[in-house]
Request: fold
Amino acid sequence: MIRCRSTILVAVFLACVPVAPGQPVVLEWAERLVRNVQSTSFPELAKKDIRIDQFTSDSDYFQARFSIPRFILGRRMRYVIRVNSGATLLPAPEDARQAIVAHELAHLAYYAKGNRLHLLALLRFPAKGFRERFEKRADVEALRRGYAQGLKEYRVWLYEHVPPGTLPEKRRDYLSPAEIDALERSTRR
Reply:
């Protein structure tokens, strides 16, 4: 249990850490991409304070966060889409990038919905079963908003670009192209 609490505390701390001084300004393409998907597919987020930030990782390319200090202090919530600053993301197909941004915006829509106390449920995020349900729910929301083909393209691209050690986790936590196809077929009936 102590290890789990330590993991949660580290995750909370890292979610609050700003980009270090001297890092380049967020890539303009990422800002345009997020704003475009937000304005066309997530009208409920139009008046939300959403920032774009950078991070580095060899296995994650986008992340959705909310401001822990603002949550705790009861201030107006601020949300962040974090974009991997590595160049490996640029060759991903445009539809794939739009779809994964829709997935991340689905997380922000969940964070912004209703009373902020529901966000305390995210303390269970380190648990595999919870993380899998949480991520697949965002996938389903992206599919519902028309990003099925792009999400399939993103997963194919992702499987080729993540380190082999993280591939099983990606396959477990997110919908696969076959699962996306199956969901698409079932909703057309």
